[in-house]
Amino acid sequence: MDREIFLKTSLLGALLPAGRKFSFSGQAEAEGPVVISTWDNRKANSAAWEILSGGGPALDAVEAGARVPEADPGDRSVGYGGYPDRTGKVTLDACIMNHESRCGSVAFLQDIKHAVSVARKVLENSPHVMMVGEGAQQFALDNGFKKENLLTEEARQVWLNWKKNPEYPVTSWDQYMNHDTIGILALDRQGNLSGACTTSGIGMKMHGRVGDSPLIGAGLFADNDIGAAAATGVGEEVIRVAGSHLVVELMRHGASPTDACRQAVERIVNNHGGGMDGQVGFLALNKKGAYGGYAIQPGYSYAVRTLQQEELISSESWFG
Predict the structure, then answer these.
(1) Is 38 one of the annotated active-site residues of the chain?
(2) Fewer CB atoms inside 10 A, N or C side of the chain?
């Protein structure tokens, strides 16, 4: 970003009164509350919008939004109905972060549908940030959650079919790994940012595998002075560059949300010598409400809900 653009974007916050429309370096415009989410999660955005439009806090909004795909048996990558691992177990990862940099996270959680809500309980009812496995499950039960079977018959059949050829590689483009982790970010009427991320991870993953989604700074990061970011796709790649934290730091140094996401993608692609078959997508929302996304491969989209619009945006990508 050149000096002129940087100065313009830096001064906007001081020059624009509250509630005015704004735009950063060609970014999409917004006014009032904003909620954005990875992939086609417009239903999640609608649940979040009910809270935001009534003046509710961003933290409540992102939790409500993330719970929508978690409860959808037709979503093969989040919560109930998600693809299992190689042992037939559905294991969940999730995290949540508020405007005060407080966060909660769970990983390798089994038999509890709403992992994002357990993560919020970790934030609110424990001295910790992250809990995993049996400990996370017991913590959930102690906080009023109920055990449920998350493996639907449809997902079980996919697993049984995979077992017929278990040596078949689970690559980034096969039917098991094409998944739609939800990362959801919101800016409320008070000007506060929060975010959440939740997933059942890569289908047919090794038992015990944890991706980027529950890791603060990888799958999700929020800084109330700057902005928030979330990631989706191959979690191992996101972890290697601390992806969401990287996006926020790039915005701190003047990058627009879209350009920050693009630079994070570039970092990943460069780790592979300029070529990569897998998919990673980033999503970013800055303190002023400007938003954007960018991915490695074509096909990534993100959903937006503001006072002006409700739409699904096809993201720019590094290849194609």
Answers:
(1) no
(2) C
